[in-house]
Amino acid sequence: MRLRAVGITLAVFAAGVFTAENSNSARAAQSLPACKAPKAAPSAEKSLITQINRERKRRGAKPLKRLTRLVSSARAHNRWMASKRLFAHPSRRIKFGLGGPASQNLAFMPNARSAFAGFMGSPPHKANMLPKKWKKIGVGASKCSGMILFTVNMTG
């Protein structure tokens, strides 16, 4: 996990690659500001998927297909993080994997453009998003305390 200052706003990122057997994700957690009722931000979800797929295409990878199950899982994870005021990956095996390896990136940023730039500027996040093995994606974006909480779930 990395904490980085962006202007006067703190940006938080976390990356994890999971398999059915184990997780190599760091378990460190970061506190979130109070967010009693995070509101879904579907336009931010769509924007982030578009940016990810544009970058994948530029690098010769096929675009990721949005999967409702992964979106639901990402949004549920955002609600969990907001309720616990905790910015972290699950402490157990992730449940959204469809029988194989899966990846999850997290960001707490002002918008999708800054989340994407942060992901691409971080080698672990970039490595999570660009492999050709990923075929499906689900992004959850939730407005929280003037920022947007992003969970990006990918699987084969």
Please give a structural write-up.
By secondary structure, the protein is α+β, with helices and mostly antiparallel strands. The protein contains four helices and nine strands, in the order ββββαβαββααββ. Strands 1, 2, 4, 5, 7, 8 and 9 form a seven-stranded mixed beta sheet that branches. A two-stranded antiparallel ribbon has the order 3-6. The longest helix has 17 residues, at 42-58. It is globular. The two termini are 24 Å apart. Mean pLDDT is 78; it is low at 1-27.
The number of helical runs is 4
Number of strands: 9
Largest sheet: 7 strands, mixed
Rounded Rg = 14 Å
Structural class: alpha+beta
Percentage of β-strand residues: 25-35%
Order of helices and strands: EEEEHEHEEHHEE
Coarse shape? globular
Give the proportion of residues in helices: 25-40%
Mean residue pLDDT = 78
pLDDT < 50 stretches:
1-27
How widely separated are the two ends?
24 Å
Quick structural overview:
The chain has helices at 42-58, 68-84, 112-120, 123-129; strands at residues 2-6, 9-18, 30-31, 39-40, 65-66, 86-87, 102-109, 136-144, 147-155. By secondary structure, it is of the alpha+beta class.
Attribute tags:
about 160 residues; about 30% strand; globular; 4 helices; disordered N terminus; two-stranded antiparallel ribbon; about 30% helix; seven-stranded mixed sheet; alpha+beta
Write the layout of secondary structure elements.
Blueprint: E1 2-6, E2 9-18, E3 30-31, E4 39-40, H1 42-58, E5 65-66, H2 68-84, E6 86-87, E7 102-109, H3 112-120, H4 123-129, E8 136-144, E9 147-155
Parallel strand pairs: 5-8
Antiparallel strand pairs: 1-2, 2-7, 3-6, 4-8, 7-9, 8-9
Helix pairs in contact: 1-3
